[in-house]
Design brief:
The chain is α/β, with parallel strands linked by helices and 361 residues long. The chain has a single domain (3-360), classed as Glycoside hydrolase, family 3, N-terminal domain (TIM Barrel). It contains 13 helices and ten strands. Strands 9-7-5-4-3-2-1-10 form an eight-stranded parallel sheet. Strands 6-8 form a two-stranded parallel sheet.
Length: 361
């Protein structure tokens, strides 16, 4: 694939990640993929009822993309525990908190290995995990069981094996939620949380810096406001990202959290928030699907590209990084075959969960 032969619209399409929070992969979704050549999709549990139907959905989307020049990202939020996007016929692996409480370095390695195996076999090539947030609150916090610990050392010990297993198997690990959602106990689906302590923000950022040193290639940006950095959350805050990301020479992908999450579209109009996130430095913006998007969102958005209302040089530079990452991780459009021995997978998960129970007691 010759990058220079791609149109500016094709390059811009790579910057869009479509969240399929819907029970039906309808014609409009298929047409968005075909017409606007988007970079990828985010899968949700409601998209399928079994491991077999999950593979069928992925193959259907691959077929929709078959005439496009660049293969799709298939992304998922598979943190394990409460954030579990695998179908119900796969046993749920215990939460990050429980994994950490077991205090056995072999457990995160075993969980990283089995989770990676499942994701790879079904065709997922990007996972929004592991969570690197420091849990600064009691057990009833918003992040709660999703966090691996209350300090940098605890988190890195329990997350880096998972990240490396995914990377070694051509799955992009997207560490999150930069700069650290554990600083605030507000649910960002209901309001935009605010961090008032830049000192604590900088402590939390150190976890991400260590992960980058370990080879993290992608980070998800949180919808968190930082006192002293204006009204815009980090996901669309150019000044904050310039100071804490780009000045550090980070070369990986920056991905916004869902711009339609919770209260976000009521505060920031979706088209405007996409443009603000790109201007701030995002390579990829995630936007959940809504019926009518083909005409109401994508057509006017690509008109902005057509009339250079979004800087062509910015699009060119960001798309180059995205495509290079797809090449590095050997993202492809090959049809997925169901080779998973589900009973063996569930037996392994059961053994790991039982071991965690014994370690915690």
């Amino acid at each position: 694939m010759n990058f220079n032969k791609l149109s500016i619209a094709e390059k811009f399409g790579q910057m869009l990640l479509l969240g399929l929070d819907t029970y039906e992969i309808n014609d409009e979704i298929i047409n968005i993929i075909k017409e606007y050549k988007i970079g990828g999709v985010v899968l949700y549990k409601k998209n399928y009822t079994s491991l077999e139907s999950m593979i069928e959905v992925i193959n259907k989307l691959k077929m929709a993309n078959s005439e496009n020049k660049i293969p799709l990202f298939f992304a998922i939020d598979q943190e394990n525990g409460v954030v579990n996007r695998l179908p119900k016929d796969v046993l749920n692996i215990y939460s990050p908190r429980k994994q950490s409480l077991a205090n056995d370095e072999n457990i995160p390695k075993a969980i990283g290995e089995i989770t990676t195996y499942i994701l790879k076999e079904v065709g997922v090539n990007m996972n929004f995990a592991p969570v690197l947030d420091i849990d600064r609150y009691a057990n009833d916090s918003i992040m709660g069981s999703r966090c691996y610990g209350k300090n940098k050392e605890e988190i890195l010990k329990n997350t880096m094996p998972f990240m490396h297993f995914m990377q070694e198997n051509n799955i992009i690990a997207v560490v999150k939620h930069f700069p650290g959602h554990g600083l605030n106990n507000k649910d960002s689906r209901l309001s935009i949380p605010v961090s008032t302590s830049i000192k604590k923000v900088e402590e939390d950022i150190k976890v991400f810096e260590e992960a980058i040193n370990e080879g993290a290639d992608a980070m998800m940006l949180d919808h968190l406001r930082i006192k002293g950095y204006g009204f815009n959350p980090v996901s669309m805050n150019k000044a904050f990202l310039e100071q804490y990301v780009f000045s550090k020479k980070y070369k990986g992908l920056l991905i916004s959290d869902d711009l339609r999450m919770g209260i976000m579209p009521y505060i920031f109009k979706v088209k405007k928030s996409i443009c603000k996130s790109i201007d701030a430095g995002c390579h990829i913006v995630m936007v959940k699907y809504k019926k009518g998007d083909l005409k109401k969102l994508y057509k006017p958005l690509f008109n902005k590209v057509k009339f250079c209302e979004i800087d062509p040089e910015v699009i060119n530079n960001r798309a180059k990084v995205i495509i290079q990452m797809k090449e590095k991780y050997q993202v492809n459009n090959d049809i997925v075959k169901n080779n998973i021995a589900l009973n063996k997978v569930n037996d392994k998960i059961k053994k790991i969960n039982n071991l965690i129970d014994k370690k915690i007691i």
